Amino acid sequence: MKNRSMLFLLLWLLLPALAWAQTNVPAAEVIAKINRGEAVSYQNVTITGDLDLTQLANKTLQPAKGGQGNWESKEYVSTVTAPVSFINCTFKGNVLAYFNPNYEDGKPKISLKSELNEVYNTNFEKDVRFEECVFERRSDFKYSQFRGIASFAGSTFQEEALFKYSKFSNGIDFSKARFREEANFKYVKFPSAVQFKGASFEREANFKYAAFPEGADFQKATFLGLANLKYARLADPVQWKGAIFKGGQDLKHASMNNSSFSNYALQELTR
Question: What is the spatial distance between Cα 182 and Cα 129, in angstroms, rounded to a whole number?
């Protein structure tokens, strides 16, 4: 009886540690799975540490590109070869599919004139799902190629969501996503209709130079900051019904079906 009581007490004391182990996953564990080519699937967990996808085991140096001035330009690309799925997960560290060591938070941190111009990018060959997740720090997917489904539906981005120059193949979903800082989709050409239905943009929604040749769904989206559609090219079906604009719009040189697109036309489409 005494031994049984001691065992019960020990288990009771260990419960907090066991619960922590079950709900916290080191980013290194995720990277190890990716490096082994395994499918990644997590739900209701917290990922601790930086999830750096730019330094995978299959990282390769791409053919040389011309730099600017005296710069020597080097591009390294890592490839996630298996499906990735995170459902209702929290990322405590940075999630990096793009990294430039000469920059920090988007700003130069050293003199660039004599520095090596290195860029690290990550491509995804299979489906990528970050659904109902919270990115507490940076989420950088600049230049990434998504060859399968890319879903960030219902996720919250606490810092800038960087998708500038990203390339999507199909099945693009940002419905009900919440962007607390800038949502940067500058220069993105969406090859199929993209879902932003019910999304919330609390700062600038940057779609400057973006293209929507197959349409998009912005129904009931909320734009609290600037809706920057400068030079954007849109085509039907683009749905705006119920969208709310509180931070203004920049539609300079924007087009809809190859015709000019005005603020008045946009407001009419929200009715």
Answer: 21
For residue range 206-230, what is the model confidence (pLDDT) as tens digits? Answer: 999 999 999 999 999 999 999 999 9
Instruction: State the DSSP string of 51-93.
Output: EETTS-TT-EEPPPB--STT--EEEEEEEE-S-EEEES-EE-S
What was the pLDDT predicted at 4? 56
**What is the pLDDT confidence band of residue 169, given thresholds at 50, 70 and 90?**
very high
Question: Residue type at 149?
Answer: I
d(CA 255, CA 84): 35
In degrees and rounded to multiples of 5, residue 13 shows phi and psi of -70, -30
Query: Residue 14 pLDDT > 50, yes or no?
Result: no
Residue 228 vs residues 23, 142, 187, 224, 234: alpha-carbon distances, Å: 39, 18, 12, 12, 13
With tokens 């979903």, the residue in question is 173
Beta strands in 71-163 (DSSP E): 73-80, 84-87, 90-91, 95-96, 98-99, 103-104, 107-108, 117-124, 128-131, 134-135, 139-140, 145-151, 156-157, 161-162
DSSP 44: S
Find out whether 131 and 151 touch, Cβ atoms under 8 Å: yes
